[in-house]
Design a protein that fits this description.
Helices cover 40% and strands 12% of the residues. By secondary structure, it is α+β, with helices and mostly antiparallel strands. It has one domain: name from scop (3-Layer(aba) Sandwich). A hairpin with an 8-residue loop joins strand 1 (12-17) and strand 2. It is globular, with a radius of gyration of 14 Å.
Amino acid sequence: MNKPDPSKVQGVAVALAYRAGRTAPQIVAKGRGLIAETIISEARAHGIYVHESADLVSLLMQIDLDQYIPPQLYRAVAELLAWLYKMEAGMETGTEISALARPDPVSRSSS
């Protein structure tokens, strides 16, 4: 099976939501081109962090809308969410977290 070249994946976005009590994060929006631009624009307008990972987006685009992420992606998404929670906690306390400390969940969990 050929994996898409992440460097050629442009204009693609996936939005995840996790609600307490649910089994896993859920795909709540996804699209290409203008739809992707709208997803990203709306997220930023509402202060939602936009993580840029072509590898992760490529994997998430394979999941149907309104579906939960599969167990194979739990670790990658959990690492990203943990980093985001730490970043948000740092913002509340005035502690800055370097963008260089951002996890690369796909490359770490695929080995």
